[in-house]
Amino acid sequence: MRPDLIIVGAGIFGLWAARHVLKRGERVLVLEKRHVGRGASGGFLGSLMPHMPDRWNDKKQMQYEGLRSIGDAIRELEADTGVNCGFRRCGRLMPLGHERMLVHLRERIEGARANWTDEAGKQIFSIQLIDTPFAGTIAEGWLAENAAPFGAAFDTLTARVNPRGYLEALETYVRNHSGAELREDCEVVGIEAAGDGVDIILSDGESLAGGRALIANGWEAYPLIGRIGGAVKGQPITGRGVKGQAVLLEHLHGDEAPVLYDGGSYIVPHGIAVGRDDKKRPNRIAVGSTSRDDWLPFEADAEIERCRFDEGDMDFLERARRLCPAIAAAPITEAWANVRPRNTIADPVTGKVGTEALFCRLDAAPQISIAVGGFKISFGMAHLDPGRFATCGAPDIS
Ligand SMILES: Cc1cc2nc3c(=O)[nH]c(=O)nc-3n(C[C@H](O)[C@H](O)[C@H](O)COP(=O)(O)OP(=O)(O)OC[C@H]3O[C@@H](n4cnc5c(N)ncnc54)[C@H](O)[C@@H]3O)c2cc1C
User: Partners of 336 in the beta sheet?
Assistant: First the structure.
């Protein structure tokens, strides 16, 4: 039967979109070039970190709504599927390396008061200063005091999730739903508007008809969108793949340990959903990550390069060990690399290029939409209903 929606890509964005439309009673076909989990969503870092709450704008509001609602969205998904997604609102510690950071922190504490609120305007998440010495605080034995000469900022909004469990839960939901079909080893090479519907062309030449299409195939969305001349409000949709790598360490820790973050280094202590010892104590910590634009040498095989872990590019682990001496001797249990999407469109509010997720309909064919990840923030936003944000106007990429 002709699906109401055909989704290209079974990453976190494609599978969440499938869940939304299935809940509305529509029929969905998800087409995946490889297998579920082989894209950027199949890793283990899983930090869900907010933008800073000062200098507030619509983009920050949207990301806040994502982070605020994600706990409920995941609990509902877990209840529907029985799969543990390893979510915890664990908070985040960020060292203050310079005196002027105390001034920024004061603005952020005020920003959190004004913006990290519920519908009634009551503050529900906060940022505070954790002063040195750290003894008796959440930073004790976790964040190195010598890395934090002016103390640390601790926020209560940051969370963690196990990306693989989260993806498995979504896949389980879609596969078990009578209104859905998920096809793997199925590469989409073209999309065409056909009357008020769409025709999808596969690499083997097969053509599939559907009511609407959603392009959600991560960094590989940009060439696909380019082939159909995709633009929104006159702005061509462009972007690139940025390769990143991360490692998973074995180290016993308390389940309540916060994420540590400093200048691009993430340390994410996971719960038992990722790993545990024989006494059922959590023992996996993810550390990341790199960002490389020049990951694909001329004439190299993209399929090999996109997942190839580069042992020579591990400064991030050294930085993390200095930040968190507790993990200095922790052995690596897995090293992982993949390519994440980053658009090359300047944000009309902040002027920053490529930080936001794109949820929009194409100008030339409103029955074709895109849902492509924001750089490093996708997991906190993928559960937001793209339809909802298309109608409320944010993100506006004109
Ligand atoms: C090292 C690293 C660490 C990261 N850490 C975090 C983090 O801590 N927090 C966070 O929020 N984000 C993080 N990210 C970013 C996040 O992983 C991505 O932004 C997110 O997974 C993108 O999801 P997606 O669904 O858009 O893409 P993907 O997960 O890549 O899914 C796209 C899918 O589409 C399929 N596909 C591609 N082309 C086609 C085609 N033509 N036809 C059919 N299917 C196709 C692919 O095989 C893939 O399965 C990290 C990324 C990396 C690499």
Answer: 246
pLDDT band at 376 (very low <50, low <70, confident <90, very high): confident
Residue 371 is encoded by which pair of tokens? 């849902």
Parallel/antiparallel/unpaired status of strands 188-194 and 127-130:
unpaired
For 387, the token pair is: 């339809």
Please tell me the predicted confidence (pLDDT) of residue 398.
31
The CA-to-CA distance between both ends of the chain, in Å, stands at 37
Which residues are paired to 247 by β-bridges?
287, 335
Statement: 5-91+157-392 belongs to CATH 3.40.350.10: no
Q: Where do the structural domains in the chain lie, given as residue ranges?
A: 5-91+157-392
- Residue 77's contacts (CB-CB under 8 Å, 6 or more residues apart) are 19, 83, 85, 166, 169, 170, 173
What CA–CA distance (Å, rounded) separates 54 from 106?
A: 10
Contacts of 288 (CB under 8 A, 6+ apart): 45, 244, 245, 246, 247, 265, 266, 268, 316
Structure tokens at 45: 């870092």
Query: Given this model, what pLDDT does residue 231 score?
Result: 85
Whole-prediction pTM value?
Answer: 0.96
Task: Measure the CA–CA gap between 223 and 33, rounded to whole angstroms.
Answer: 15
Ligand 1 binding pocket, CB closer than 6 Å: 8-14, 31-34, 38-41, 43, 45-47, 187-188, 216-218, 220, 224, 244-246, 288-289, 338, 340-341, 372-373, 376-380
Mutate to test the pocket of ligand 1, among 289, 303, 339, 376 (most ligand atoms within 8 A of CB): 376
Ligand 1: centre distance to CA 221 (Å): 11
Relative to the CA of 34, which ligand 1 atom is closest?
A: 47
Axis crossing angle, helix 100-115 with helix 58-81, rounded to the nearest 10: 60
